[in-house]
Each structure stands twice: as structure tokens, then as C-alpha cells.
Design a protein that fits this description.
A: Glutaredoxin; Rossmann fold; 25 helices; globular; B: alpha+beta; Glutaredoxin
Chain lengths: ~625, ~150
């Protein structure tokens, strides 16, 4: 099947929609990494098995769609019945028979599979009414969880590649760049640089060969938005890239995918092959004179390769060491040729802007921060998952309205954004609008979109130590201030966590941080001290508690805590005794147990298994 | 051990034989043998026309490559931020203690290897442990070692 005229694409889309319309209902089963781990494949198999056994009018196996991530991973495996939008959570294979009987053959709703609103215990039938979804605005994630990612026809049916056809038939490259510039789309990878400006600079460089690269090296620990997009809607990524290539005049593109995302690589490879077969990628796209191909380039597990110049070296098969920034990669990038590098989320916004117009896009969000931003909302929040909100939404709305507040009714302590290059923000900053500029001003950064919620059981010194440890192992080692400086910072945080820190250590760390920022070439070093500095800024008391009182208020730092059995609460069930691999707990059955502090390794296994909250950390 | 390397010609044939294929070739070798045997690095250098020192530098720069053989079961413990604050480090300690090895090592009987990985993109079900490509979410110190059985 090769499309040689843009008109054909429209006919195909109409045809696919008609075929899909023969089913009176469709079922989407979330097959994102989270739901798959919770058994989504067994749900799909159960549907298949059941439908092989019984005939259902206007419904068959084809109407059961394996989609990308629906976002609400907490409640998985998820099943949605469309067009009604009935949302079933925590579905088990044994539920399938009754889903088919009640909700497919008839229009009944199965109460027990519905989502329960934790605030009032009310059952909610439709996903659009669930607070987790109703406060979101989905643009980048528009198709994720709705279409079958491995089937190009599904994408075409939802107006996929329509923007590409529009660009190729009615617009000049300059008009495309103007439209993107006008939309004020900023790079979603973290830096927030204007995509339009980047494209314009690349086009203006005199060169015969230019490249377009998609950065799918989502290295920030705690972030999986791009992963979900690549897995759940790979064709949107390709379409954005092809439009960019047309605008800047590139013939070759690369998608650099993290090694840790094997499924994303497979889906993209399949999508590339399908769009080549349909004439949407490769030679003479849609029968025009424009040709462009994309190759998949797999990363090999190096955080620094998310940095533009390091990434380009890695694509060329070399060690991913960044280079000085005074030569921009948009002028001299891959193989020293002009290269546009945007991240996954940036590219998927492009087709929408082309279809709906820059003016429409600008109306979403706030001034200079147009559109939406996807986040992975994780950590100590009740509703963990993948979300997307209009820029300018406050942290409070995200954490409490969408996230449902903190788990186990605990208190909020901080939110970390921007990964190892970002910072932690305390409760006083909860009403901060989430956009590029506000977050940077507050001492954090947007980053690619990891949003990690922390409660009173999270130690902020430990968080700083955690990020420094990560950066020490990921620093490429080229710049001494980064390589050695971060190492020293890590040692100092360790010293504080062990209860041996002094107040001068804080000053020393602040001073050293400044030197690292000035003396490093790339973002890893330049922003590496941020998690530390932001925690010192907002949680100095906690540092002082470690230093002066030799206490870890959150009960995390092993040297400063002790586990104890509360004799009055302990039932003597022996669960902790069996869980303790160090054999530090002794006592008779049905009598209070005792933890021997000399043997206890503070692993927390006893507290994890105790059903009576009889283990105390002090 | 040389008989094991009979897949190499096929791996080399999949990629253009020039220096830019280095990472991809090493990835395929890693995938096939689950580590990079020394002899394979020598052959890669000569086939792609890259200095052995460069092959070694790439092989040791990236976390995905390993120079030592792996155990039958590779236990990958996610220590991404979300996993960390939900107790990932405690789980790592637990598994290390149970197997008597540290992350990055393999048991003497070649049954288990422990690796740590900074985020596998499954943060919503933190903490996560992956045993031979099977994802386990919401692991706790109470049940971590159970994943190693079966």
C-alpha cells in the first residue's frame, strides 16, 4: 500500500473509520509497561479466548485494542469500553466473561470494577468524570491509550499524517517555521528553547546536508512521559520529525532511544517500516519531491547522552562526551553538519499545531509558555501515573486534584522536578504555576517532566545525596570540576547523613557548587548542584537536625535511626521475626518482640510486614 | 570459549562495516552473549577498522555493556528517584544480602547477577525489580527475595 497523492490519505482515513464503525463498541486494554506488569496481556488473552467461544453481535476480537499507557497506572490493569467511556480498574481475567455479557452485549455497568473516588467513596462510571482525568488537558498524549500503536491504520483514522499532507501540499518550509515560531512552542526536553527559532537557525546555515534528531533518551530518573509516547503513539513522533525535516531541509533523521526502553524501540522500528510502506517516509513522500528517512539509534545507558552534543557523538558510534557550547549543534551538530535536535514531546506537538493553527495553540497555557506539558506524577502521591496539563497549572492542582493528595494520609514535604538537573520545592511553593520560567525562578526547572512527590518520610539530605551519587556515576569525566567536584559534594552529603557533618560543610558545599557550575561544559555539571542547593535553600533545618542533633527527622538515614517494637501494640504474630534476614528480632509467640540494636541492619523489613504498625522508627 | 563466538560474522553482517556502527555492533554482541567477550572486542576492532583502545573505551563508557559473563538470572533493581524514595535502596540491600553479592557482581555458581539501573520508566509502580526481563512492581522489603525463586 503506497500513498502517492495526499487525497488518497483522506480516503484511507475515511475508509478506516468506516471499518472501525462496524463494531458497536470497542474495548481498549492498556498495555503500557505498568499495566503489562500487572497482567494486561492476560486480560487481552482472556478477551480473545472468550470471544472465540461465544459470538457477540457487532463485536469481535478486532474491537479489542491493545493500546499504550492510559496514564492511571495506579489502578491497572485498565479496560475502557468505548464509545461510552466506561472505565474499569484492576481488572482480572475472570472478569472478562461478565464484561462481555453485561457491558458489551448489554449496556450494564459492573459496579465493582468501577473506580472509587477516595474522597467520598463514590463509584465513578466514566473516565472523563474521574478527577485524575478531568483536570488534564491532553495534546501530546492525545492518542496514547486510545489507538493501537502498532497499527498505522489506527493513526491514519485519527487524522494521522494529515498535518504532513497539509504541509507538503499547501505550505512552504518558511511558512511551516513561521507557524511553529508563532505558536511559541518551546522544547519539552527541559531547556525550553523556542523550537521555531531552532528550526530557523538550522535552515539558514548554508549546507547541503542537514539532520533532524529526535531525543528519546529520557534519562531523568523518575520520568517516563516520552517512553509512553514512543510506546503508545510512535507515528506522531515520526510525523513531527518529517514536518521538521521538510521545514529545515533535511533528508536524514535519527531517533535516539534509551537502551532501558526496549518496547519503545520495537514500536518505533515497526512504525518506521509501516510509514515507509505507505509512502509517508522514504523517497518521494506522498508522491511529492520531498524525501526523508529515519533510522533508529539505540542508546547504551549513559545519562550524559541526553545532552545534545554527547547524543550526537553517540549516534556516530562514539563515546558520548559533550563539547563546548559556543558552537551550537544546530549549526555544527551530527558529523559537524547543521542538526535540529528536539525531544519526543516537542515533535508530537508539531502535527497538532499545523492542523489547528498557532493561534489555537497559544490560547492554551500562559504567556510565553504555550500549550501543555506531560508529567510523570510519581513518588508518595496517591494517584501515580502519566498526566498532561496546560502550562500554568499550579503544583497544588496537580498534586491534590489530579494526584489525589499524599499516600496514607501523610503530609506533603516537597516536589522534585527536573530530575538531577532540577530541584525540590517545598509547600510554600505549591501555588507556583508550572511553566518553564516560574520553575527556573524558584530554583528548580521544568526538565523533561518527572514530578516526584515527597512526604514527611522522605529525607531531603538523602535525596540530595541520591542525586549526587547518580551524577557522580553518570559524569563523563571530561571536566574536572564536574568529575571531582560532584564527588566531593557526594562525600559531604554522605558525611552529614552519617551524622558526622558540620555547619561549615554546608558552606563548603555551597561554595564548591558555584565552582562546579562555572567550570563545567555541559548541563550535567552546570546544573548538577541544583538538587543539593535547592534542598539547602528550602530544607536547611533538616540539614541542621542531622548536623547538630544527629537526628534524621524523616527516619531514613540509617546511622541516625533505630527500629523498636512498641510492646503495647505488638501482637506477637512473628511476621517480623520471619522477615528479618539478620535474625535481629527475638521473642515468644503472642508476646511482644524485641529488636536487638546491635544486630539490626535497619533494612525496614519488619516495618514493611507489620500489619499492626507496631514497629517504630526513632 | 571460542566456539561460542560463531554468531559474530552474522552480527557484523547486519551493520555497515565502518566506525559509526560500533555501538550497534557491541549492543548486538551484548544481547547475544549477555556480555562482551574479549575475543569479540578484538574482532570488532579489526572488522570495523577501529582501534582496540577505542572499542574498549566505548565498551566501558556505556552502562549497557559488561565485560564479565552474567548469571542465569539477571536481577535488575531500579534505583530511579521514584523507586528510591519508595524504598528502592532497602530492596537493593535486601537482595544483595540474600545472594551474598553486591550490585554488579555474579554469584559463584553463575546463577544470579545483580545490576542496578537508574529508571526503567515504570515509576508509577515503584519500587521496581526486573528479573530476566519480567517486571515486578510495588516490591517491598518484605517480599523482595521471593522474586528470586521460581
Amino acid at each position: 500500500m503506497r500513498i502517492v497523492k495526499p487525497k488518497q490519505l483522506e480516503q484511507l482515513a475515511a475508509g478506516y473509520r468506516k471499518t472501525a464503525g462496524k463494531h458497536k463498541k470497542t474495548v481498549t486494554v492498556c498495555c503500557g509497561t505498568g499495566c503489562l506488569a500487572k497482567g494486561a496481556q492476560k486480560i487481552v488473552d482472556a478477551f480473545e479466548e472468550c470471544l472465540n467461544r461465544r459470538k457477540v453481535k457487532d463485536f469481535d476480537v478486532e474491537a479489542v485494542k491493545k493500546t499504550g499507557c492510559h496514564g492511571f497506572c495506579e489502578q491497572g490493569p485498565l479496560v475502557v469500553i468505548e464509545p461510552q467511556g466506561i472505565f474499569y480498574t484492576k481488572v482480572k481475567p475472570k472478569d472478562i466473561e461478565s464484561i462481555i455479557e453485561k457491558s458489551i452485549e448489554n449496556d450494564e455497568v459492573i459496579e465493582k470494577l468501577l473506580y472509587t473516588n477516595p474522597q467520598d467513596g463514590r463509584k465513578i462510571e466514566k473516565y472523563s468524570d474521574i478527577p485524575f482525568y478531568s483536570h488534564q488537558r491532553r495534546i501530546a498524549l492525545r492518542n496514547v491509550g486510545k489507538i493501537v500503536p502498532s497499527d498505522i491504520r489506527e493513526y491514519i483514522a485519527v487524522d494521522g499524517y494529515k498535518a504532513l499532507a497539509k504541509v507538503l501540499t499547501t505550505m512552504t518550509p518558511d511558512q511551516v517555521i513561521d507557524e511553529i515560531t508563532k505558536s511559541e512552542l518551546r522544547g519539552r526536553g527541559g531547556g525550553g528553547f523556542s523550537a521555531g527559532k531552532k528550526w530557523r537557525t538550522c535552515r539558514n546555515v548554508a549546507a547541503d546536508v542537514r539532520y533532524v534528531i529526535c531525543n528519546g533518551d529520557e534519562g531523568d530518573p523518575g520520568a517516563f512521559m516520552d517512553c509512553s509516547i514512543m510506546e503508545g503513539d510512535p507515528h506522531s513522533v515520526l510525523e513531527g520529525m518529517i514536518i521538521c525535516a521538510f521545514a529545515v531541509g533535511a533528508k536524514q533523521g535519527y531517533i535516539y532511544v534509551r537502551d532501558e526502553y526496549p518496547l519503545a524501540g520495537i514500536r518505533l522500528q515497526k512504525a518506521i517500516a509501516a510509514s515507509e510502506e505507505y509512502g509517508l517516509l522514504g523517497d518521494k513522500i506522498l508522491g511529492t519531491d520531498f524525501s526523508f528517512s529515519i533510522r533508529l539509534s539505540r542508546g547504551a545507558g549513559a545519562f550524559v547522552c541526553g545532552e545534545s552534543s554527547a547524543l550526537m557523538r553517540s549516534v556516530a558510534g562514539e563515546v558520548g562526551e559533550p563539547r563546548a557550547k559556543y558552537i551550537h549543534s544546530v549549526v555544527k551538530g551530527l558529523y559537524d553538519l547543521p542538526t535540529v535536535l528536539n525531544n519526543v514531546e516537542t515533535f508530537v506537538n508539531v502535527p497538532v499545531i499545523i492542523n489547528s493553527g498557532a493561534d489555537w495553540f497559544k490560547k492554551i497555557g500562559v504567556a510565553k509558555n504555550s500549550g501543555t506539558k506531560a508529567f510523570s506524577l510519581v513518588g508518595k502521591v496517591r494517584n501515580t501515573g502519566l498526566i498532561e496539563v496546560a502550562m500554568g497549572t499550579t503544583m497544588r492542582e496537580i498534586i491534590y486534584d489530579i494526584g489525589g493528595g499524599i499516600i496514607d494520609g501523610r503530609t506533603f514535604k516537597g516536589v522534585q522536578t527536573g530530575g538531577p538537573s532540577g530541584g525540590c520545592l517545598p509547600e510554600t511553593q505549591l501555588d507556583l504555576p508550572v511553566d518553564f520560567d516560574s520553575l527556573t525562578k524558584a530554583g528548580s526547572m521544568m526538565g523533561s517532566g518527572g514530578m516526584i512527590i515527597m512526604d514527611d518520610k522522605t529525607c531531603m539530605v538523602d535525596v540530595a545525596r541520591y542525586f549526587l551519587n547518580f551524577l557522580v556515576s553518570e559524569s563523563c569525566g571530561k571536566c574536572v570540576p564536574c568529575r571531582e567536584g560532584l564527588y566531593q559534594l557526594h562525600k559531604l552529603t554522605e558525611k552529614i547523613c552519617e551524622g558526622n557533618g558540620t555547619e561549615e560543610d554546608i558552606e563548603k558545599m555551597e561554595k564548591l557548587s558555584q565552582q562546579i557550575v562555572v567550570g563545567s561544559l555541559c548541563g550535567l555539571g552546570k546544573s548538577g548542584p541544583k538538587p543539593l542547593l535547592s534542598t539547602i535553600k528550602y530544607y536547611r533545618d533538616e540539614y541542621l537536625a542531622h548536623i547538630r542533633d544527629k537526628k534524621c527527622p524523616a527516619g531514613v538515614c540509617k546511622n541516625l535511626i533505630a527500629y523498636r517494637v512498641i510492646p503495647e501494640t505488638c501482637t506477637g504474630c512473628m511476621a517480623c521475626v520471619n522477615a528479618c534476614v539478620y535474625q535481629a528480632i527475638t521473642g515468644r509467640k503472642k508476646e511482644p518482640q524485641v529488636i536487638n540494636p546491635d544486630i539490626c541492619q535497619k533494612c525496614g523489613a519488619c516495618a514493611a510486614v507489620c500489619k499492626y504498625n507496631a514497629i517504630e522508627v526513632s | 570459549m571460542t566456539h561460542k563466538l560463531d554468531k559474530l560474522p552474522e552480527i557484523f553482517a547486519r551493520h555497515p562495516q565502518d566506525p559509526s556502527s560500533l555501538i550497534m555492533v557491541l549492543q548486538d554482541i551484548q544481547q547475544e552473549y549477555r556480555y562482551l567477550p574479549c575475543e569479540a572486542l578484538l574482532q570488532t576492532a579489526s572488522v570495523l577498522g577501529v582501534k582496540l583502545s577505542k572499542v574498549f573505551s566505548v565498551a566501558t563508557f556505556y552502562n549497557a555493556f559488561g565485560l564479565a559473563p552474567k548469571g542465569e538470572k539477571v536481577v535488575r533493581i531500579c534505583v530511579g528517584t521514584a523507586c528510591h524514595i519508595r524504598g528502592g535502596a532497602l530492596i537493593k540491600d535486601q537482595i544483595e544480602h540474600h545472594l551474598g553479592i553486591k550490585a554488579g557482581q555474579t554469584t559463584g555458581d553463575m546463577k544470579f547477577s545483580i545490576e542496578v539501573v537508574a529508571c526503567v520508566g515504570a515509576c508509577a509502580m515503584a519500587p521496581v525489580v526486573i528479573v530476566n526481563d519480567k517486571y515486578h512492581g510495588e516490591v517491598s522489603v518484605g517480599n523482595a527475595t521471593r522474586l528470586l525463586k521460581g
